[in-house]
Design brief:
Distance between the termini: 13 Å
Shape: globular
Helix content: 10-25%
């Protein structure tokens, strides 16, 4: 099921001037999310964007393998985006919906010669995690999702055990929404 729908920016921009204030704020949030997504698409490897948007709700993360990007949501609102490095063809990052099982600020790999994995957030018990690491802008890990260090630290600070992380093999399109587990309509199906 494809859950990402394109956001048509021209109708949104044209309609902002002609709608009520509450609707304008909602449309403004959509254009802010669109602007953040567009800016994220232009990020150089190792870079990220983080807004101080006033948003409520649980934190969730969407990892798009084709985009090599992480998108962070608070509730249904996009608040941050970053470049990532996912797994190589020989050791791909698994696709699916995961929860954060364990967090450790300074972890060393028990599979790969005690390699440092700062700000590790475990997604599977067999070795897949989000963590700070080399971020060349293309798949280069052994299955983990490597993040820029400053982004990994900020993400580590705002997530909780049990937070949703969705890894997808589809490109993210602005307005696609938070991971499926947090979408109240899709979660009720």
């Amino acid at each position: 099921m494809r859950r990402f729908a394109p956001l048509m920016i021209a109708p949104v921009l044209a309609g902002i001037m002609a709608i009520a204030p509450a609707q304008a704020r909602a449309a403004g949030a959509a254009t802010d999310e669109y602007a953040l997504t567009e800016a994220a698409a232009e990020l150089a490897p190792g870079r990220f964007l983080w807004t101080d948007a006033k948003a409520a709700g649980p934190v969730s993360v969407l990892i798009s393998i084709p985009d090599q990007r992480a998108y962070v949501f608070r509730g249904q609102r996009l608040i941050a985006a970053s470049t990532v490095s996912t797994g190589m063809d020989e050791k791909p990052t698994p696709v699916g919906t995961f929860t954060i099982l364990q967090k450790k600020a300074m972890h060393k790999s028990n599979l790969y010669d005690d390699a440092p994995m700062p700000y590790m957030q475990r997604l599977t018990w067999d070795g897949v995690a989000l963590h700070a690491g080399r971020n060349p802008g293309f798949p280069a890990s052994h299955g983990c999702v490597r993040l820029p260090t400053a982004f990994a630290k900020k993400l580590f600070e705002i997530t909780q055990l049990g937070a949703t992380v969705e890894v997808t093999d589809m490109a993210y399109v602005s307005g696609g929404g938070a991971p499926l587990a947090l979408d109240p309509v899709l979660a009720s199906r």
